[in-house]
Amino acid sequence: MATTTTTGAEKRLEGGWFQRFAWAALGWFSLGLLVWLPFFYVALRRGRPSDWGAFASFALYECVTLPWAVNSPAGDGDPFLGIAALLTLLIATVLLLFAVFDKKTRPVPAMPAYGQPPYQQGYPYGR
User: How many Å apart are CA 64 and CA 68, to the nearest integer?
Assistant: First the structure.
């Protein structure tokens, strides 16, 4: 089920490599605390159910792991929490770099008006 605009065109969210790396770096530099933010941005902009599902899963991850880290009885740290955090960051990075944003498309050249012959390159002095 694709989200369409009022004109019937599917909503697209094209992103270049710089934007993809910037969103992925946000998750790593915040130590996983803001990993949900890029998926929220994509869900708001494009509005597909799969985008909202990705946002909900990363928001649920944050709501579970943050209290888990605060209430962990282990003094040195919980190894399962560390593995879950690294695995989640890797999954988010792969999704942001290769799956979430649409590939850029080339603009379609304008067609001549109806009744006008298309421009033909060739012998410039007529036939």
Answer: 6
